[in-house]
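Lecture notes, structural biology module. Today: joint structure prediction for complexes of two components.
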Amino acid sequence: MISLSTAFKHASIFVIALVPVFACAQRSTTLSSSSSIVIVQSTAIYKTNDMQFGLIVPGPLGGTVVLSTSGTRTKTGSILLPSGGSASAAGFALLGAPSTSFSISYPSSVTLNRVGGSDSMTVTAIVASPSSGGTLSAGGSATVKIGGTLTVSPTQTFGQYSGSFNVTVSYP
Amino acid sequence: MKYRKPFHSASIFVTLVCMNAVRFAAAQGGVSSTASATTTIIQGMSVTNTSSLRFGAMIPGALGGTSTVAPNGSRSATGTITLLTSSSFPSSAASFNLLGAPNLAYTITLPTSVILTRQGGSDTILLAAFTSSPAASGSLSSTGSGTLSVGGTITITGSQAAGLYSGSFTVTLAYQ
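The predicted structure, tokenised, for the full assembly:
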């Protein structure tokens, strides 16, 4: 009897020792996600897109590239517009109290400089949608898109050009 | 002999569990018609994060409060918070696509709380009270797929610094 009892005890210990083996069969997968929130104190403006003219080939005569507020490109002159690069109008998200009216201002022209050089190009005829202002939606937001016209000289040095400009939103 | 009997049966029990797991995988491998499905079996469960837990934009108001995103994606707020609706900053529950063995049962462990930090600053927001759908456990479909959605609640003060706050969290699924 005593030895039987001992045997059971041994078996019991053995099973406990096997628990880690059993845990090996139990597998797990870790799921990761991000979380975000935007806090607005009175009003806010966020850039959602840069103004991108994409890839441009000047050709023998140069010309202009018009980027609309919806992000479509049209050209004049001998310019070719390969589809490789992505083109987009500048985009801004406005946030604030629902139904607040606002006005926007932006520069009439922006100079772009060649990365790693001193060559420049100019964006003029800058247009916005809405053109001068509007009213935040009932949900407290609005979207502003900005495009412009880029003038490309036939002798424009190849390279990447960039510049920056500010958009100011006023809440009267 | 009596020493070995209980000893042996315990050992068989454990072995059976392991073999079950292997058979499960093997059966799925045979039914499966694509190489990627076979890879999924070897890994146990494959997970794709299809959407993050987004609270969108909001104005705290004088006193702040809490905002909750439910696993079905619906957003609500308490206190003086004004929830804003912006296509640039939509709200959504976190969502995951799960792939694994058919009918694979799993249990879900959600985080207790995580800290969201303001971009370009050190201000924080506590994200807690995580909820999920399915809630505590679930099982993949007969074709080995499933979806898991996760929501939570953030608490903000009236003077919460304006800006974009972000952070990340992990959910653990355990299965055999």
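Point to remember: Chain A touches chain B at residues 3-4, 7-8, 10-11, 14-15, 18, 21-22, 24-42, 44, 46, 48, 91, 93, 95-98, 137-141, 143 (CB under 8 Å).
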